[in-house]
From TrEMBL:
Residues 779-950 form the Gylcosyl hydrolase 115 C-terminal domain. Signal peptide: none annotated. The lineage of its organism: Bacteria, Bacillati, Actinomycetota, Actinomycetes, Kitasatosporales. Gene3D superfamilies: 1.20.58.2150, 2.60.120.1620, Chitobiase/beta-hexosaminidase domain 2-like (3.30.379.10), Glycosyl hydrolase family 115 (3.20.20.520). GO terms for molecular function: hydrolase activity. It comes from the Bacteria. This is Glycosyl hydrolase 115 family protein. Residues 948-971 are annotated as: Disordered. Pfam families: GH115_C, Glyco_hydro_115. The keyword Hydrolase applies. Keywords: Hydrolase. It comes from Streptomyces cellulosae. InterPro entries: GH115, GH115_C, GH115_sf, Hex-like_dom2.
């Protein structure tokens, strides 16, 4: 245990809604004289509680090697006893409460609350008991699993192979420990896009089924250990529908899991698998098959729904109302063509479904939910009448941006509000199913916004195939239980705590930092979204190469830390840390080398062209190899089929980029291309004493035979990383300026590259403002024809009208972003300087004129409102910038571009009357706007995917010169 740095989960790391009171009394041992303390649970308690008590048995044995006896009668004599029971269902627990021996204040009568407390002499013949009591059956179950976590059993012990460290002494604090009501009543997942999960399940769990009871047992247990209570089961053609096996709903009820169904699956019916057989069994009078259209076949469809309501009436279920087409398609209404007519049809559908539930299920038919997803949202906004006691489930845009949130009237409804949110997605404009790539800070930002708008009845997260989403799902469930536990500054603290539970506290901070950088790189572009020519390979020091160098450094950190872990943790580390980082790196790497290959063709390179092709192919082979390792070697092949970056039929999935090879020729020749130019050297290399950059010059062979070359600078203060040699392929020469030797002023210089009878001159433009100017600068300084600002680096922030800007660490493409809060603040539409919260940035311009200023805002939506921010320079009038507020679901439009890139670029014009210091001002117009970066183009800004590196600032960025990008063969 000491070698691994492992520590059990202590009360201090339970949610804020779990209150651990110091008692000053000795801890309760679960092991005595080498034998585990017996566990008592009344046989009359809920079957789900009895089953969870069995898991406690197993968990104690996992930790101690000794399995406690599970008993249903109180022993006549015992020094120690664990008592598990539900208030109102366990006479022993109820007696302790009545005798005021067990403190259930804040627990009794609440939803899923619990108390864990040591009671002395609780029963005749029992000296001391650890009592785990819940307000209801799931409250008791969560109390049981809290105890399991506290002794060192991770919720992911099975699904991520997290080792359980053996301990010879296991104790639980005397307490009381209270877990109060959750922030959100129903918290769960949608197993969707489950092709990989089905493949794995068929190969390793149930070879006669495509996800069946054995798999769902594992899913149910994981959900309960994560303190979730709700499931939308698998629905796609690859998977057997949930009710195909009657054991599935029976098991769910036995575990205490509420089962519902997704937006196209009304009243627990899986249209993908179930409608066609039903239609064949209920043909029309003329023998034709009925269609799934309520305007054509209402009675057949109504009977179809009724049969399932009757079949599942005895289980704790959630009932989805409304209707969409089969298999996640749009609603079909042959005899209703206008929006108004479709609204009337939807109202009839809901009325019919409510009647069915009343007649077949009765008062237990709750919760009932209505999901205005895609085209149904338009109908809802046009007047669909959803009964007051039905929960409205608001969907995101499938990419983590909430489309619409409830207004005041909707928040007042007795049914409340919920969300359907994607951590994984199959569909337009691109899918992301492979890795967990949604920044936790993004998840935190949207869920905070959701809760501030009164959405607290139900949170459902689409988790795809479940594996790879371990971290994101854990955070989502943590937020759902206690939305106030994590703040804008400490999302990374969650990572440190969570990874500390899996790997031990010693390594947790480093893993958290690795994961934060992994999420940041994914925020620039998800690895599933990578494509040809996304990132520039010629501008800003090779934008793509610098990004890959960041991945390379990150992977090296992963390897260094992995080598320090005990062998028992290697599989878990590969699953949770190494594979995501390495896989994302290789997906990006093969496209980088493919882009370099394509550029080499345009530049006329010889052997180097094929070298880049080889590197792209090697990266693809490496990616296939680590995926094969995951599926066939990790945990002894336990996860066979669970990971596949390319499941069939994924829209716009990246794959194996095409490369070009050229035939060998027995020739040689000299070629030169410098930074900022795809070919040649027309655009000079720009150097500033403020940024102190490095710039590159690519020297390459146009043939296959070795060529000798030399490079020489025209000024003594120009330094080169290489001055010549012999090359067969290519070499990247880095050019720098020795600022201690260059006089103040603006200078022209050249680097002359010669070889094979050719001479190529590379022009340099060097601006030295002097050390005094650098020291005196008070803000961001223009250089190279632009000013680039990380939005968190403000000179001043001004709060107004009860609203303000706050930093959300770990959000966006840099270290953090600024967000206008609270999300419920009223929009400001005028007198910005007097009424709107403001960000101020001091900027020193070296030129004058009218310049474009681009605000990089993080996408967010409001389909009943607007997404606006305003910018101004000094005291000039502010310009309001309007962002995309509506999710179209299309490819290639503004919304699609925003979700693919993770930012929306909004541009205005500011006028700089004269060079010198100015103040750039950003105002909130609409709340919950998040700003990541700001760029002013003063005439030298090339078109690139990312914003340029941040400009010089004496405090925030005193040494902005960037490191060289990736230019060595991949690992």
């Amino acid at each position: 245990m000491a070698a691994a740095g492992v520590a059990p989960l202590l009360p201090a790391v339970l949610p804020a809604t779990a209150e651990a009171a110091p008692s000053g009394r000795p801890d309760f041992p679960l092991l005595r004289d080498g034998a585990a303390v017996e566990v008592f649970v009344d046989a009359a308690d809920d079957p789900a509680v009895l089953r969870a008590a069995g898991d406690l048995q197993a968990d104690v044995e996992r930790v101690t090697g000794s399995r406690p006896h599970l008993r249903h009668t109180v022993p006549e004599k015992a020094a120690l006893l664990v008592v598990v029971g539900t208030l109102g269902a366990s006479p022993v627990v109820d007696r302790l409460v009545a005798d005021r021996r067990l403190d259930v204040s804040g627990v009794k009568g609440r939803w899923e609350a619990s108390v864990t407390q040591v009671v002395d002499r609780p029963l005749p013949g029992v000296d001391r008991a650890l009592v785990i009591a819940g307000s209801d059956r799931r409250g008791t179950i969560y109390g049981v699993y809290d105890t399991s976590e506290r002794i060192g059993v991770s919720p992911w012990y099975w699904w991520a192979d997290v080792p359980v460290v053996h301990r010879d002494s296991v104790t639980v604090p005397a307490g009381p420990l209270k877990r109060y009501e959750p922030s959100v009543r129903y918290r769960g997942v949608f197993i969707n896009d489950e092709q990989n999960l089905t493949t794995w399940s068929y190969r390793t769990q149930e070879p006669d089924k495509n996800i069946g009871p054995r798999t769902y047992e594992r899913v149910f247990e994981l959900l309960l250990r994560l303190k979730a209570n709700y499931l939308w089961p698998a629905m796609h053609p690859y998977s057997d529908f949930f009710n195909k096996y009657r054991e599935n709903p029976e098991l769910a009820d036995h575990y205490g899991i509420v089962v519902g169904s997704s937006h196209p699956e009304a009243l627990l019916r899986n249209g993908v698998h179930e409608w066609e057989p039903w239609a064949q069994e209920h043909p029309n009078a003329d023998g034709s098959l009925p269609v799934y259209d309520y305007t054509v076949n209402p009675s057949v469809i109504s009977d179809y729904w009724r049969a399932r309501a009757r079949q599942n009436a005895a289980y704790e279920s959630s009932w989805t109302l409304g209707m969409r087409g089969l298999h996640d398609t749009a609603l079909e209404t042959k005899y209703a063509t206008t929006v108004a007519e479709k609204v009337a049809v939807m109202n009839d559908i809901v009325t019919d479904q409510r009647r069915i539930l009343t007649e077949e299920v009765g008062t237990g038919a709750e919760p009932q939910i209505f999901i205005p997803y895609k085209e149904v949202l338009e109908l809802y906004n046009a007047g669909v009448e959803v009964p007051e006691d039905v929960t409205l489930i608001w969907p995101d845009d499938n990419h983590g941006n909430m489309r619409q949130l409830p207004n005041e009237a909707e928040r007042a409804r007795s049914g409340g509000n919920g969300i359907y949110y994607h951590l994984s997605y199959w569909g337009r404009p691109r899918s992301y199913l492979w890795l967990d790539t949604t920044q936790l800070a993004k998840l935190w930002q949207e869920l905070r916004r959701v809760h501030e708008h009164g959405v607290d009845r139900m949170w459902i997260f689409n988790v795809g195939d479940l594996k790879s989403i371990e971290t994101g799902l854990s955070f989502a469930m943590d937020m759902a239980w206690d939305v106030d536990r994590w703040g804008a500054d400490d999302v990374e603290d969650f990572l440190a705590e969570w990874y500390g539970r899996q790997f031990g506290r010693r390594h947790a901070p480093e893993i958290a930092a690795i994961r934060t950088e992994y999420y940041r790189l994914a925020a620039e572009r998800r690895p599933e979204f990578i494509d040809r020519q996304m990132f520039s390979v010629v501008h800003h020091g090779d934008e793509a190469g610098r990004r890959l160098a960041a991945y390379d450094r990150l992977l090296e950190r992963v390897r260094v830390l992995g080598a320090k872990l005990p062998e028992a943790y290697r599989d878990t580390y590969f699953e949770l840390v190494e594979y995501p980082v390495h896989g994302a790196y290789l997906m990006n790497l093969k496209y980088y080398w493919a882009d370099r290959n394509a550029l080499a063709v345009r530049q006329g390179r010889g052997a180097g062209t094929n070298r880049f092709a080889d590197l792209a192919e090697a990266a693809h082979a490496d990616e296939a190899a680590i995926t094969r390792r995951y599926n066939t070697e990790v945990a002894g092949g336990k996860w066979d089929g669970i990971v596949n970056p390319y499941p069939s039929q994924i829209p716009k999935a990246p794959g194996r980029p095409a490369v070009t090879r050229i035939a060998r020729t027995e020739t040689s020749g000299l070629g030169v291309a410098c930074e900022g130019n795809e070919t040649g050297t027309a655009r000079p290399l720009s150097f500033s004493s403020f940024t102190r950059d490095r710039r590159f010059v690519d020297v390459f062979n146009t043939g296959f035979l070795a060529v000798d070359w030399t490079a020489e600078a025209s000024r003594p203060w120009v330094r080169l990383s290489a001055s010549g040699g012999s090359l067969t392929e290519q070499v990247r020469v880095w050019v720098e300026v020795d600022w201690t030797r260059v006089p103040e002023g603006t200078y022209e210089a050249t680097v002359t590259v010669a070889g094979a009878g050719q001479r190529v001159e590379v022009p340099l433009r060097v601006v030295n403002a002097g050390e005094r100017a650098r020291d005196r600068a008070r803000g961001f300084v223009e250089a190279h024809g632009y000013v680039s600002i990380d939005a968190v680096h403000t000179e001043r922030r001004v709060a107004r009208g009860g609203a303000r800007w706050r930093t959300v660490r770990g959000l966006g493409r840099r270290t953090g972003a600024v967000e206008a809060v609270p999300s419920t603040a009223v929009p400001v539409t005028g007198d910005f300087a007097g009424r709107a919260p403001e960000l101020r940035y001091r900027v020193r311009f070296t030129s004058a004129g009218s310049f474009p200023v681009t605000v990089f805002r993080l996408p967010s939506l409001d389909e009943r409102g607007l997404r606006r921010v305003a910018v101004a320079l000094d005291d000039q009038p502010a310009t309001v910038l309007s962002g995309q507020a509506i999710a179209t679901g299309n490819r290639g439009d503004a919304w699609a571009r925003n979700v693919e890139e993770g930012v929306e670029k909004l541009t205005a014009t500011v006028t700089v009357a004269a060079p010198g210091e100015h103040v750039l001002r950003v105002f909130m117009v609409d709340a919950a706007i998040a700003v990541d970066q700001i760029v002013v183009d003063t005439g030298g800004l090339p078109t690139t995917y990312l914003a340029p590196p941040e400009s010089y600032h004496p405090r925030f960025n005193p040494d902005p010169g960037y490191a060289p990008g990736l230019d060595a063969p991949a690992r």
